[in-house]
Amino acid sequence: MRVYLDLCCLKRPxxxxxxxxxxxxxxxxxxxxxLPSSRIDLxxxxxxxxxxxxxxxxxxxxxxxxxxxxxxITRPPEAGLSARIATLVPMGFRSFDAFHLASAELxxxxxxxxxxxxxxKIAGRFSGQLSARVxxxxxxxxxxxxxxx
Length: 149
What we know:
The protein has eight helices and four strands; from the N terminus they run E-H-H-E-H-H-H-H-E-H-E-H. By secondary structure, the protein is α/β, with parallel strands linked by helices. The protein has a four-stranded parallel β-sheet with strand order 2-1-3-4.
């Protein structure tokens, strides 16, 4: 399964862990990242690199950079990327969210994973117009566990 984790997911382990949902999401993200490549194909794109480079917290930026360096960077076609972003933004997706979602779709991701509730809500409204299914890390981990039983 080809999966795209947005930057919110990759940064979740560095958030304050005082809320139960944040701790659960962190465990789910870490579980996804620990899966062998034979079970899951994690997509890395220029959208990750760009947004991560803007992170002012060096420790978070460096940790995410390390993960991004552990696999190939998929470069979606520029013309297709721009056109897809232009269709996603009017739906209500923020610029970086549209950039990530378009990157996921054009990179062949089957699933786009985020902890951003606003993004999840908008994606739910427009699911029929998206080629990647948008979900949260907890739901994806539940699906993966079901695959093994």
